[in-house]
Amino acid sequence: MSSSNFKSLGLSKWLVESLSAMKITQPTEIQKHCIPEILKGRDCIGGAKTGSGKTIAFAGPMLTRWSEDPCGMFGIVLTPTRELAMQIAEQFTALGASMNIRVALVVGGESIVKQALELQNKPHFIIATPGRLAHHIMSSGDDTVGGLKRVKYLVLDEADFMLTDTFASDLATCIGALPPKTKRQTLLFTATMTDQVKALQNAPSIEGRPPVYSYQVESTDKVAIPATLGTEYILVPEHVKEAYLYQLLTCEEYAEASAIIFVNRTTAAEVLRRTLFHLGVRVASLHSQMPQQERTNALQRFRANAARVLIATDVASRGLDIPIVELVVNYDIPSDPDTYIHRSGRTARAGRHGDAISFVTERDISRIEAIEERINKKMTECDKVHDTAVIRKALTKVTKAKRESLMEMEKANFGERKKLKKDRNMNSKTSRA
């Protein structure tokens, strides 16, 4: 199997040429195993870490079959975040450009009316977040979403996350509008094999259909993080975390490095973005309270290195392919060790070195122990920032910048939108009840 190329895996000639034009000529492990089986008509569960070519593993066979009969709504890809949906839609559009492919991106934060018109136009592929697609299914007429009844493929990308309670009701709405399991192929791709995903592997076969094909690239779980990733921690008193972060980002080793700083809450992301901006750091942020256009712009600025630091909530930790990241900082420690793995996966990709540094307060000890057990590796103490240096150099300056930031946020009513939305939801629930 090692000598296989995309043609020998069964992809259409035009698609092989398309891949070749994008300088993609050698199939990865997950592509070699999944593409032929999906082309045989089997449902498929594929496990491989981010950056291993999962999108082409499902897009390749779907595009091949579509080009043999390019009818209306042919395939649907559901994914947890808008940014990931945009990335997948870009890949589908680029791969199918020579074939006049129509790809609709159906995500929150964009015009519902414009999306409804696109759906009426029967796009060949729909790349969507479950919440927004469910909204169209519930509130748009048959002329908009009726075509979903003939879809040949359903893909759940980042399936481990999609099968959690967060998405349960929206996912049920989406799947309810599709043909039954016997009339479509279902493809699940994930970086983490959770119990929910494993349960689907062992589901009984559907009559008249070949059994589910499941392939996991060795070590998806055994080696949760790459060998090229340095894992370190800094013990930090809670009230001076910003000063430590500023010192770390401006120390000799990381003064030029591109970095993603992960926080657990949107308010923390906004405070940090403004504080670092006042301190002269080229910074952008990515969180759910930003309008979609701002989120897109922030990502583009970071990819183009116009911003060297991206402050992000976990909306950015899954699946995004940003090849330049040299440093990931867990400013807040996640409660789920798998989230740590997804965050750290933004750096040390494709054999390059990268560092993941965690800020540990006295409250985080048990979380760090759980992460160390999950990654089967002890973190080492980071020696790049010292108490005396922080206190002497940074504290006064950073405290002043943070105070200014908080005043600005108060003036701008930051968080008001979220509160209004919450109130609106509560009101509509009460009126429905």
Automatic annotation (TrEMBL):
EC annotation from Swiss-Prot or TrEMBL: 3.6.4.13
Residue span of motif Q motif: 4-32
Residues of the Helicase C-terminal domain: 244-391
PROSITE patterns with a match to the protein in the record: HELICASE_ATP_BIND_1, HELICASE_CTER, Q_MOTIF
Domain of life: Eukaryota
UniProt subcellular location: Nucleus, Nucleolus
Domain named Helicase ATP-binding: residues: 35-211
Region (Disordered): 410-433
Cited PANTHER family: ATP-DEPENDENT RNA HELICASE, ATP-DEPENDENT RNA HELICASE RHLE-RELATED
Protein name: ATP-dependent RNA helicase DBP8
Species this protein is from: Maudiozyma humilis
